[in-house]
Amino acid sequence: MTVESVFPRLEALLPHVQKPIQYVGGELNSTVKDWDSCDVRWALMYPDAYEVGLPNQGTMILYEVLNEREGVLAERSYSVWPDLEALMREHGVPQFTVDAHRPIKAFDVFGLSFSTELGYTNMLTALDLAGIPLNAADRTVDDPVVLAGGHAAFNPEPIADFIDAAVIGDGEQAVLDITDIVRAWKAEGRPGGRDELLLRLARTGGVYIPRFYDVEYLADGRIGRVVPNRPGVPWRVSKHTVMDLDEWPYPKQPLVPLAETVHERMSVEIFRGCTRGCRFCQAGMITRPVRERSITGIGEMVEKGLKATGFEEVGLLSLSSADHSEIADITKGLADRYAEDKVGLSLPSTRVDAFNIDLANELSRNGRRSGLTFAPEGGSERIRKVINKMVSEEDLINTVAAAYGNGWRQVKLYFMCGLPTETDEDVLQIGTMAKNVIAKGREVTGTNDVRCTVSIGGFVPKPHTPFQWAPQLSAEATDERLTKLRDSIRGDRKFGKNIGFRYHDGKPGIIEGLLSRGDRRIGAVIRAVYEDGGRFDGWREHFSYDRWIASAEQGLAGTGVDVDWYTTRERSYEEVLPWDHLDSGLDKDWLWEDWQDALEEVEVEDCRWTPCFDCGVCPQMDTHIQVGPTGKKLLPLTVVNS
Amino acid sequence: MRGRTGTTDEGLSPLARRTPDGPPPAPTVQRIRLRYTKRGRLRFTSHRDFQRAFERALRRSAVPMAYSAGFTPHPKVSYANAAPTGTASEAEYLEIGLAERRDPEALRRQLDESLPPGLDVTEAVEVATSNFVERLEASEWLLRLPGVAPAEAEKAAAVFLAAEAVEVQRMTKNGLRTSDARAAVAAIGLAPADTALVGIGDNTGTDGADDVRTGAPCAILRLVVRHATPAVRPDDVLSGLRSTADLAPPVPAEVTRLAQGPLDEQTGTVTDPLALDRAAAEVGR
């Protein structure tokens, strides 16, 4: 059955919308395969605007991994802005892929990657535009399997009503395994319909099918237990871990959009996972263990990727890029290799303590200086012990001195507000730190004209972290604390003018918190928000706190629980958490001990250079830390112009 | 601009400029003028989008560009008179400065291969003359009007031509702007039959269904507009056709620029703006 492109119908709408180029596809390195010669077809969606979704590495990797397979096709879809959504509804144009403009409903699997919970309403918009029933229970064998992935999928319970399946962990091998199961089921003539396919996926133990689990609640609103309701469906679903990154050098051919997007660079993931053990950091907890890409593997990816894209910046991505065991050789090697080509280097996530003078020099060598950003996360020594961010003020000041000494005059510092046990004093210390940074900068450079920007986000407790039990700070208390900090910075005559201040108000954080630690009862809230017009909740001009609160009152009516219950309430050791049956490998008892250590301000070392502290991941997932050094060097390449 | 949820930014003024160490950039030794297209679905490319795509294509094909000085050196490219977003074009022009000499035709092929289909580089000539932008006196446009009968369009064009002046309004960044669409039009009438599907309909994507056309009538107008200030664009002429002759196409017109260059007032035709450079190149050979 050939599926027709919706492009001719879409094209007539494009002259009436903003930035039409984002809907036409045809990006450099994109792939369109023949529909009829493929038997398993994936639509991959990043449920945010094209400009945010296109550069997403996860989506790009899976797109390429799937399209490289014979007989398998993957196309991409992004959220359409409300102007086009209205026109699509008026003219009956369904949600489409940008590659061949095929309707989403025609695909076998509709995979959505959730980096953040704020994309949930956009999923509902896409499903509805696609003509796919919002409730998974209402779908037939003709609808695609709606599959959620990404970090937010580690607690997929709030969207359990809407998805058919969720996969947690690394997607590369997982999508291929799912492809094989779908292919076999289709080849057999779809025995047992949709139910049978989902059952086959569930029985692998690596795909979570919410409908095969019943949730029982206690009288006080807490969860009693979560029980599989089909034979052969495991009690817990495991995360996926890819062990050798050099075997997965993706994306090999990164997409180069015509439209402007948020990241326009050649990104290479230099390692995956992090064992620093920052207690607030969900990414660091759920992506363990650390697996490094080799220096030679990185060099090859950069070289091929630059040739394939023409990008002028290389981003070395990871959760803490300066922690790669050969980071100094990598940065020096790349700076040497591309000295003549005006290629800039950036290390988006850099810890304060690992940064050193050599690294600063290599990054600045070609003249391009993307600015220096560090994340002390907490303003006081005490709070940094609570969150296990093992950085002393002395470390920071030394690092900053090196940076200013090497010619930078602007430093950006990231912090969080609302951390467990935090007081006003902890937050006011952020201002003190910024002043000390300016003072040091002035001393080193001999000029008063040095800058420090302080950027503060509200802390949201996340599943699968030691802070999963913690009470979230209310929006009002967050805003009060930030106002005090702001006043103390602005009121300072000597330093105030040199300190930039960037902060988030507390309200969006509460909604993120509701969705992060929510259970299946939150589904009704998400649906109510969507039906009331909620879209693009990650965007200031679209997000409505009042709509979320009103919808929560409506959606949670009669349950006995409310927004505060989900956010500002502290959980106890015994409580069954909504995500307990999703196995990130972390031992719940270890997480609890780490939570207790946090309250006692006890720090935990990094297992890369100290003995194992039994977080549970490696034995549970049969994985191990995989780090260098390899001792190899990044050889300079001679560019041959033929 | 859109921002992420809940962020408030109390920014800082930019730092004083410093100058980079090291030698100044290599000088420009050769300049080349290129003609390129914006076809099919890539007509939705904005000019900014095209600039980024073109500069990346220069990098991919390792063109020895001359760069500006400074910490963020820019390749030397100047663009002339870009067609509006959503408008297809067969005749866009730009000029690049090279730090090493190259054969224009080889360079054209290289760049054309590096750009996505639809953004096609169709001509390259070494620069021998100045005042190129001044030579772009007028544009020739093709307006496809699906759902409009040719006779109806022809009549409307005649009414438009007969008018003394046709005032049209357009919403711009600086508010509502009024101009005379009639004064800028050098010619308008039904297009010759062989120009039917240039620009818009050719299959630049891979959908394979772009040029599926219905059996409905479709008038095609050929339009020559002088480049004036304020600029009169094809949509201004379309609004003029609506106001003077009640021509109201049921779906948006598909607009393609066929040519831009010197205007021959006698014949109402637009001639090749690269002719002078081409002639100079022949002489030099």
Explain the overall architecture.
The complex is a heterodimer of chains A (642) and B (285). Chain A is of the alpha/beta class and 642 residues long. Chain A has 21 helices and 18 strands. In chain A, strand 15 (410-417), helix 14 (424-445) and strand 16 form a beta-alpha-beta unit. Chain B has 2 domains: 30-127, Alpha-Beta Plaits; 136-202 and 215-270, Alpha-Beta Plaits (2-Layer Sandwich). Chain B is built from 7 helices and 13 strands. Chain B has helices at 47-60, 104-114, 132-135, 150-162, 181-184, 234-245, 275-284; strands spanning 7-10, 30-38, 77-80, 88-98, 121-126, 138-146, 167-172, 175-180, 185-190, 218-226, 254-261, 263-264, 269-270. In chain B, the strands form 3 sheets. In chain B, strands 2, 3, 4, 5, 6, 9, 10 and 11 form an 8-stranded mixed sheet that branches. Chain B has a two-stranded antiparallel sheet with strand order 7-8. A two-stranded antiparallel sheet of chain B has the order 12-13. In chain B, a hairpin with a 4-residue loop joins strand 12 (263-264) and strand 13 (269-270). In chain B, helix 4 crosses helix 6. The termini of chain B are far apart. The chains are: A alpha/beta (642), B alpha+beta (285). At the A-B interface, helix 1, helix 9, strand 17 and helix 16 of A face strand 1 and helix 1 of B. Chain B: Residues 1-28 are annotated as: Disordered.
What count of domains describes the coordinates of chain B? 2
Provide the β-strand percentage band of chain B.
Answer: 25-35%
Q: How many angstroms does the end-to-end distance of chain B come to?
A: 52 Å
Reported CATH architecture of the largest domain in chain A: Alpha-Beta Horseshoe
Strand order of the largest sheet of chain A: 2-1-3-4-5
From the structure provided, what is the oligomeric state, counting identical versus distinct chains? heterodimer
Low-confidence stretches of chain B: 199-213
Level-2 CATH architecture of the largest domain in chain B: 2-Layer Sandwich
Question: What's the gyration radius of chain A in Å?
Answer: 25 Å
